[in-house]
Known about the structure:
heterodimer; A: Alpha-Beta Plaits; flat; B: mainly alpha; 14 helices
Amino acid sequence: MQYLLLIYRSEAEMAKLSSAELTAMYAEYGKFTQEITDSGNYIGGNPLKRTTTATTVRVRDGKRVVTDGPFAETKEQLGGYYLIEAKELDQAISIAARIPGARVGSIEVRPIMPRTQAVQA
Amino acid sequence: MILALMDFEKLHREESGRILSTLIRLLGDFDLAEEMLQEAYAVALQKWPAEGTPANPRSWLISTARHKAIDRLRREQRFGQKAEEIAKTAEFAVGPESELEEEMVGDDRLRLIFTCCHPSLPLEARVALTLRTVCGITTEEISRAFLVPLATMAQRLVRAKGKIREAGIPYRVPSQEELRDRLDGVLLVVYLIFNEGYLASSGDALVRRELCAEAIRLGRVLCGLLPQQAEAQALLGLMLLHDSRRDARVSAEGELILLDEQDRSLWHGEQVREGTQIVESALRRGAAGMYAVQASIAALHANAKTAAETDWAQIAALYDVLLRLRRRQ
């Protein structure tokens, strides 16, 4: 099964990190990414630019509504993601727990709906 | 031997949790397993009174349910491959009563309990699903016990089973490293079920007493299947000790009677002795968590001849420990 691991952490806290701390953090992520690539779980992933760069798009009554900023104002913001292959949920959870961001933020684990599956409620 | 209807009810209640857990493993689906078990029971109700009860009713029911599942899946053509998988995997699991079978059934029951109590399911759903599938309590009885409309409880169960399917919650006993944490989740569900029955002041009194009995049953199953886990033992001891006072807690008018005013002759002495033994054993094994401390307090109360003779100093010290444990959480 494929899962999307959404990495949420506080941008405000991130902004306080020194460049040495940032470098260390990216190194950790690099190591983690290599590990799950070697184990065959990695499908994709990216860090995202800050939520100040985000734009939200909605269409209501045929009219496009574009607003500045992310979908919702929350204490932790979406900062990146991994797309992985895992046997089942427990394996996905174990992988999510190893993401460096899990120690300071929250990881949402969401199963990908396979293309062949009919839309479920 | 002609099986009376009452015996059948008894069989259903005692065995359905065990049968269901094996069926879920064989068929890979909660709903399918439940439905096929119902169909197997229907056949049994017809055949057994006339032909006699089979030597191994449990095996008969599992075998019948499995065959019905294969037939059903073959008819719904898109699941054809699934049907063949089931036809192949089931052979080794169904056989005459034996130690190996007992072991496998035990494993299946553990799998079922851990799956129903998966942390990915909302807490209320874990409680409901455990009561429904592990304990075999009807949705109607569960909704009455928790004072929730039947439709709400039914929906809760549907969503829980849906999440198990959609999110890929695996049907297995957690690995050694995860076991301790996951067991805490299971113990919490059992504790909640017990408390619902024990502390309730309204709702169907009969059903709520059932809940205490079910929680204790679950506690015994867990201790039997996981004999190394001292904290599970401590919880069982705690529940037995609390439950030993069940006939002294409520006045004829339905009011709660405080501990120091209870008629201690109404406490169930055998149960106090068993509970105390279990708690002592758990403590010797190193249990030192919330349930162990609460159980120690309960044991001190339960073994005091009168309220005045209770070792209040020890109890106070234990409450201090409890407070520290709670703060750490």
